[in-house]
């Protein structure tokens, strides 16, 4: 993959590694957006309104996580690839089950997806710091704080 010119002084080999990790984060964050909307639209049950609103909060947060990842990646000389075909082929998340209705099932499914993204981002915090890009590591730390917060809010429904 060729990089476009930038005055960023970070060495190219470091930028390439960060661009790879940021690109993976972009893919998962876009899938997470779609999964949160699946939950937002299809949830039913006694906690409908609380979960309906909470799942939309997760969607908005995931839009921001994708944006942060994409824009830093481009700042480092990369090309953001958030095309739906790319996301469908590359996302590490399992497809969101279409048959879910109950709040507890959506809570479990979305909490699993958030936890998986959280794990990916946590690994990226360490990897980008190790290769010598503390700025990307800081960005992943910011995302990680948000993912953990939303995982807590979804998981707090204690459906197990
Ligand atoms: Fe809505």
UniProtKB/TrEMBL annotation:
GO MF terms listed in the record are: DNA binding; ferric iron binding; oxidoreductase activity, acting on metal ions
| Record key words, sorted | DNA-binding
Q: Does the keyword Nucleus apply?
A: no
* The keyword DNA-binding is assigned to this record: yes
Superkingdom of the organism of origin: Bacteria
Q: Which protein, by its recorded name, is this?
A: Starvation-inducible DNA-binding protein
Question: Which InterPro entries does this one have?
Answer: DPS_DNA-bd (IPR002177), DPS_DNA-bd_CS (IPR023188), Ferritin-like (IPR012347), Ferritin-like_SF (IPR009078), Ferritin_DPS_dom (IPR008331)
